[in-house]
Amino acid sequence: MSRKRRMSRKHKVVAGVSAVAMVAGIAAVTVSTSQAAEACAGLDQALQNNQNFIAAQKANPDAQSEARIANRQAVIDLIQQRRQAAGCQ
């Protein structure tokens, strides 16, 4: 009987661990979906900021504008890659 009791406890532990893992997985998906939306909003804002900076440099150029624009364009390219990887629209 004690062997049955031990087997029963093992099954309960396995079932409990499985249930916890499932709940954690559901929570992770929910949180990651929420975080993805926040990440997309942040990436969109960063993209807009860099585009605005480039527009301002083009409107009022100085000796360093060309280099600044090139740097910001590289940043925009990286942001676009991150947006695509995050599934942003």
TrEMBL record:
Q: What is this protein called?
A: Secreted protein
Annotated organism of origin: Streptomyces daqingensis
Where does the record locate the signal sequence feature? 1-36
Q: Which UniProt keywords apply?
A: Signal
